[in-house]
Amino acid sequence: MLVGYLGPKGSFTHDVATHSFLTSERIAYRTITDVIKAYENQEIDFAVVPVENSIEGSVHETLDYLFHQGTIQAVAEVVYPIKQQLLAVKQDQAIEVIYSHPQALAQGKAYVQEHFPQARLEMTTSTSYAARYVSQHPELPIAAIAPLEAKDEYGLEVVASNIQEMDQNYTRFWILGQRPFKGSHSLKRVSCKNSLAITLPSNIAGSLCQALATFASRELNLTKIESRPLKTVLGEYFFIIDVVDADESLFASAYQELESLGVSIKTLGHYWVYVLNDNKTENV
Length: 284
Description:
The chain is 28% helix and 36% strand. By secondary structure, the protein is of the alpha/beta class.
């Protein structure tokens, strides 16, 4: 079985793929879109991609692709604790440029501004690409914000540990596919979710309120509602909704009522949520 992930090795996504598929062959891809396309082209059996960070919010590349282009759904979610490290070839070297993924740069911005205010921030497609780039250019005054796993993978040293602004920093990762996800002994199952993308009928006042009322009237718990541009005209949106631990019959009747209201629905996933067995993320 082949599992694709946002790489290269040493990324948070790589670590999630490793915990989720202990014995499967794992293949790194350069971007989230590349991972999803690889699944659509039947190059891999599962795709592991980030979908939301507790500090920086949704990963729009993932959600927009799944809504506008993809026909693939989430079959599992893994909630992973994020610890960002500042890595360089040598601990005492000058640092003029810091590379990382945009969300990692945002998570470590306060530390960088305090300790390296002169450093320029440069975006990369993943944290591990940043670490690899730094390791390939030991002559340059550069560093990377990346996971601790990237330190050993690319032979770097830790300049500063856990520089993320908040301790309660987690990222949701979706496992995309068609086959049932069986989990592994590294993971613990904690809840069940349904993720939907809905498009409201146009020019009808109160349509969003009516849509949300279908869940409220059945006491179904929503843990997320977010609007994203439809990419048609300015001011038109679709809405991403997560429903947690829903009674199947109540959820089915809510789904039918939404359709009767003229709401277009795209299912993004019906899946179990997992956390790592060796950490305490149950309250995320």
